[in-house]
Amino acid sequence: MLRQDLRLTVGARLERNDYTGTEFLPNVRLAWKVAPEHLLWTAASRAVRAPSRLDRDTYIPTAPPFLLAGGPDFRSEVANVYEIGYRGQPAARLSYSVTLYHADYDHLRTAEIAPSRAFIILSNQMQGHSTGIETWGTYQAAETWRLSAGLSALRERLTLRPGSTDTADLNAQQGRDPTHTWMLRSSFDFPYRTEFDAIVRRVSALSDPAVPGYTAIDLRAGWRARQDLELSITGENLFSGGHGEFTDPTTRTRFGQVVFFKVACRV
Question: Is the dihedral of CA 81, 102, 216, 93 positive or negative?
């Protein structure tokens, strides 16, 4: 029997698909309340992306000779994820959390040259892992002023199985996630039910396709006219010319300066 300050949660579910049958997805979580203001926890889980019709049944063009074909033996992509974290409130005005995680990936999708060397066939020849950290903290600097900060960092390493030649997918997959992001937020509560928030965000560059890193500043002013009515005006990506976030430069959407007014009525 677990002590009252320990909690173990064990779960699992079964997911069935038409291509690989039934997938077993377990998860385990253990939480330990070291003290009323301090919590340690750890978790492990398994997740999959089951094959879709694109992976198995796609033929381009629809009749031979093909240029691209779904893989008849395409398997589910698998992620085994392990986490350990801490949440604490060492002082009445200060709270923070730290989470470390590691994920092992297997059977990731690749596009391989078919044995006949006449077309491309979808397969599962990529594997690898990622390791990261996420942190968040809040400090009540004054009765009407709250400061928050968050940081995440990621290191990803993927490799191809022997015999695979799909370096294009390998480079693209490793370059799609920023290696680090951070955010600072300052929130003021003024008299007459008014409030003002300022947010600064930083996102690192991507490598494939090349997307520059950017820093964005958002401002928001709000007024709670009544208990059930809130008015606010928000400006996003202020003091900059905007930024892109993904895709090739020729098709990339650019997020520019935006100012919008919001009315929220709660019934």
Answer: positive
